[in-house]
Amino acid sequence: MRLLLRCDAGPATGVGHAVRCAALAEAAIEAGHDVFWSGRLDGLDWLWTGLSRTDRDTGTPPHPGAGEADRPGTLLPPADSADELVALCREHRIDAAHVDHYLLGPELRDALNPHGVVLSTVEDFHTGRRPADVVVDPNLGADAVPRPDDGSPVLLRGPRFAPLRRSVRRARTTREDRLSGRRDSGTASTGPGSAGAAGPTDPPRVLVVMGGTDAAGLLGRVVSALAATGVPADVDVVVPPGRELAVPDGFRTVPPLPDLPGAAADVDLVVSAAGTTVWELCCVGVAMALVRVADNQTEGYRAVTASGVAAGLGSADDLSHPDTTATLRHLLTDPDARAALAARARDVVDGRGADRILDALRTATGDRSLSTRPATSDDAELLLAWRNDPETRRWSRTPSPVTAVEHRAWLERSLADGDRMLLVVSDADGPVGTVRWDHDPDGWEVSITVAPQRRGSGLAGPLLAAGERALRASTGAGTPVTAVVHRDNTASARLFARAGYAPSDAPDADGFGTHRRTLD
Fold first, then answer.
1. Mind telling me which SUPFAM superfamilies this protein's record contains (predicted)?
2. Of 202, 348, 330, which Cα lies nearest the Cα of 284?
């Protein structure tokens, strides 16, 4: 599938739309799809850097370097009308356009569908609403609010569909581990950054973030509100580039964080704008005090605060009110109150919304192509059955069967090896095989296995292509790849020849020869 993401990010619009799209881009590229962006996306190095990190939850290898070059996908010009969006989709053979942009009109679906393009759109209750093939509204309570029937066949409503970056799930696990370790040891944290920081610290650790750009200019007021409590606290304030902010003792200013969820996992309280960040913080499981900074946040803010998922500080005009001071003082001095908020928040979001959106898009486009995912320890039994299949062993350089113990040890080593990418490849009916890439001085060597029960279905070529897409997404175009094929395995020789691999040397004494190509 070729997926286009339409969003903007900047001082006036904030970065929430881009963060949501980045989560979907991560999931799409991880599954082997091609991703394109349309929009104004300057100044987001911190976001792309965060996406580049190795994900312990999925095993996704890190991208080299950081910054704009690591944006997951290809950046195209911004499309500001239906006609411009159609033109981009036609030029780049787009299958689905995902629009997270309030200002484009309701005519998008009628314009895109005749060209074979599926429209997915994000709305926040009534804001940004338009007919689409797939509608996403990740707000708490959205699924309980009547929505006019505009012919949209697929409605993904509620926090189950909040598209969150992989780093959020990593932070969730980190915080769980720290809390579990603190409960098991019965020890208290000794200060900021300590191993038990997920438990209450003294003074409490606080993180302040008013979105990626602080578009409403509220950081100064929030700092004043916290200082007015008179409670000693260790406070980090995220300040956008080019901004200066004077802060009192006990407060520090920090630049936008590549891994905001990871930082949130290490604090007692986050004071945040009531935007996209809320769903990330819910998934992490940290106490929140929220400020409603824009009109389109009103309904979401009310739903979250009314359900006890977060404490409400009101709007910008409320930050100097005595009630706001009292709310913050209560949260800073009562660890049990913070723990109750955090527990309710964690139950709201599981962090897998991007995958659910992607599944809906694949269904809507009729995409029967193969998807890839990193293997996990849960795949041990499946992979062992494929590995010990007689036909698989017949053409292997190590044809002897392996035991379950040997195989599990090998799998655990493989999952921890940064020079190995082990992928499970599936279609709509389930796993169809595996692709393994091993890094050596000559490039990346591929090994593929078609599931025995799926042989004869013409899947070997698509399986190899899916594996190549996953490797290209990690290493980029121009990556040299190799395949080692036995001279008597004519089917594999034909497969790699069709895929552009050329034999580079004569077979060795055991009959194995190397075939090479470069990913374009």
1. Acyl-CoA N-acyltransferases (Nat), UDP-Glycosyltransferase/glycogen phosphorylase
2. 348
Average confidence score pLDDT of the chain: 87
Strands 371-374 and 311-315: unpaired
Q: Is 291 exposed, middle or buried (0-12, 13-18, 19+ CB in 10 A)?
A: buried
Cβ atoms of 207 and 238 within 8 Å: the answer is: yes
- Residue 377: both structure tokens together: 């320890």
Each residue of 230-269: pLDDT tens digit? 999 999 999 988 888 989 988 999 998 888 899 999 999 9
Q: Do domains 2-163+352-361 and 368-518 have the same CATH topology?
A: no
Which tokens belong to 311? 């404490």
Q: Tell me what pLDDT residue 197 has.
A: 44
Q: What angle do CA 70, 75, 80 make, to 5 degrees?
A: 145
**pLDDT of 110-148, one tens digit each?**
999 999 899 999 999 999 999 999 999 999 989 888 999
Q: Which residue has the higher pLDDT, 186 or 347?
A: 347
CATH architecture of 2-163+352-361: 3-Layer(aba) Sandwich (3.40)
Q: Residues for the chain: how many in total? A: 520
Task: For residue range 428-443, list pLDDT tens digits in order.
Answer: 778 999 999 999 998 9
* Among 382, 378, 380, CA closest to 405: 380
Provide the residue ranges of all domains of the chain, joining segments of one domain with +. Answer: 2-163+352-361, 166-346, 368-518
CA distance 50 to 53: 6
CA distance 417 to 319: 50
Q: 165: closest CA among 304, 349, 305?
A: 349
The residues facing 310 across adjacent strands are: none
Instruction: Report the alpha-carbon distance of residue 200 to residue 178 in Å, rounded.
Output: 11
Q: How far is CA 69 from CA 225, 257, 482, 511, in A?
A: 39, 18, 26, 42
368-518: CATH topology: Aminopeptidase (3.40.630)
32 — alpha (psi -120 to 50), left (phi > 0) or beta? left
Please name the residue that has the structure tokens 């053979």.
Answer: 93
Looking at domain 166-346, does it have CATH number 3.40.50.2000?
A: yes
